[in-house]
Amino acid sequence: MCCGRRKAPPGLVPLILMGHGGGQHKKAPGIVERARRFVTEGGFAVVAVDVPGHGDRPKTEEFARVAAGLRAGMAAGEDVAPHLATMHTFLAGRAVPEWQAVVTAVQELDVVGTGPVGYFGMSMGCGLGVPFVAAEPRVRAAVLGLLGVEGLTEDAARVTVPVRFLLQWDDDRVPRDRGLALFDALGSADKTLHANPGGHGAIPEFETDSSLRFFVRHLG
Amino acid sequence: MCCGRRKAPPGLVPLILMGHGGGQHKKAPGIVERARRFVTEGGFAVVAVDVPGHGDRPKTEEFARVAAGLRAGMAAGEDVAPHLATMHTFLAGRAVPEWQAVVTAVQELDVVGTGPVGYFGMSMGCGLGVPFVAAEPRVRAAVLGLLGVEGLTEDAARVTVPVRFLLQWDDDRVPRDRGLALFDALGSADKTLHANPGGHGAIPEFETDSSLRFFVRHLG
B196 CB near a chain A CB, below 8 Å? Predict the structure, then answer.
């Protein structure tokens, strides 16, 4: 596309950390395909790791208990948002410090170095990303979305970096008003909502172009 | 920016018609500055004309009567939306056929020709643009926004071309839910809402870059 970035000085390559969705993992197509574009077209370094209980990581008893509560709520046709919030809060307590350590470790690589950091995460990747971005001052820009405000109001208010927020207008999992409320709750003065028709998984491909340009503008 | 377009064949230059805001005119800064970028960076032809009762055009008695109703409603602190809808309906009945004739006339110029047509209009330019885009099959893509749904539901449903819709999250003139309702009412399968913080006139400059890319993608 149209996002050629000037080559960063050695040791200052901008790094994007990507958080995967619930039940997914670090090599899910939505992670790998976007990561490849961020690297090849934007010149970024990208890192993604499995969230606890996902991918190659063991499912602890505690994780299994929280996951069972989520599944039971879904099966009973309950409002799933409080269960999701419980799961995300449980996981964020573990993932946020891990991700902070991952950023430190990756930035120690000579091919990366201590350049600016961005974050990309949809759905559960947003639910963990909001507390991560709120807590981590090295993050300078974030693409978030596909999630409602439940359990995130306070952390969202502490997010002050530029944010791109993606919302699916006909999301079958996130009520529209709850997604709009999460965008509203973000503390950033520079935040843009992009909403497109379609369900939870149907983000148009051109939004990846747009996310790439957003990261180039803020981290490039 | 990054929007170089292949030069169109002679006689097929894409044309963008721009509709100005209420109380403004064809040479208002928001028209001229965007038009210059669409021409120089996108290779488009751009045309804007004064809406009846605006700019160099006479204010008829009928226009003066409708405008007086709008001003009186504003002065009385009434909900201004129905008055705006009345004004826009009155003006659209005149502007839409004029704009259709303008497209025909401009496309007869050798330097333009019968390429694809786009439309750009915010606020009143959206209020007249929705019925124009609904009525004019030569329009293939439109950037609209800064207006609520009042009086536009039926025409919006008849819009089927790709639409970019700009909404200001803290618009001091358009209640948020009414702007969202106009986006919702658009019949287009390919429509994207971009919402940014700030008041009615505070659309960020990067949205002009984005509109340019949108037109390049759909008309280029």
Answer: yes
Contacts of B81 (CB under 8 A, 6+ apart): B148, B150, B175, B178
Residue in A closest to B214 by C-alpha: A206
pLDDT in tens, A138-194: 999 999 999 999 999 999 999 999 999 999 999 999 999 999 999 999 999 999 999
Contacts of B204 in chain A (CB under 8 A): 190, 192
DSSP state of B16: E
Of A180, A192, A125, A196, which Cα lies nearest the Cα of A148?
Answer: A180
Distance (Å) from the C-alpha of residue A108 to the closest C-alpha of chain B? 33
Instruction: Tell me whether strands A163-168 and A139-145 are parallel, antiparallel or unpaired.
Output: parallel
A-interface mutation test, from B192, B205, B209, B217, most A Cβ less than 10 A away: B192
Q: Do A121 and A19 touch, CB atoms closer than 8 A?
A: yes
**How large is the ipTM?**
0.92
Compare all CA atoms of chain A with the CA of B163 and give the residue at the minimum distance.
Answer: A196
Confidence tier at A127 by pLDDT (50, 70, 90):
very high
Asked if B194's CB is within 8 angstroms of A192's CB, the reply is yes
CA distances from A168 to A123, A151, A207, B42, B218 (A): 11, 20, 11, 29, 21
pLDDT of residue B33: 97
pTM (2 decimals)? 0.94
pLDDT at A7: 64
Q: With bands split at pLDDT 50, 70 and 90, how would you rate the model's confidence at A1?
A: very low
Confidence of residue B1 (pLDDT cuts 50, 70, 90): very low
Q: How far is CA B206 from the centre of its chain?
A: 18
First-last CA distance in chain B:
16
> B207 to chain A, minimum CA–CA distance in Å?
10
Pairwise CA distance, residues B123 & B84, whole Å: 10
Contacts of A4 (CB under 8 A, 6+ apart): A41, B2
Q: Are B159 and B185 in contact (CB under 8 A)?
A: no
Task: Decide if A31 contacts A211 (C-beta within 8 A).
Answer: no
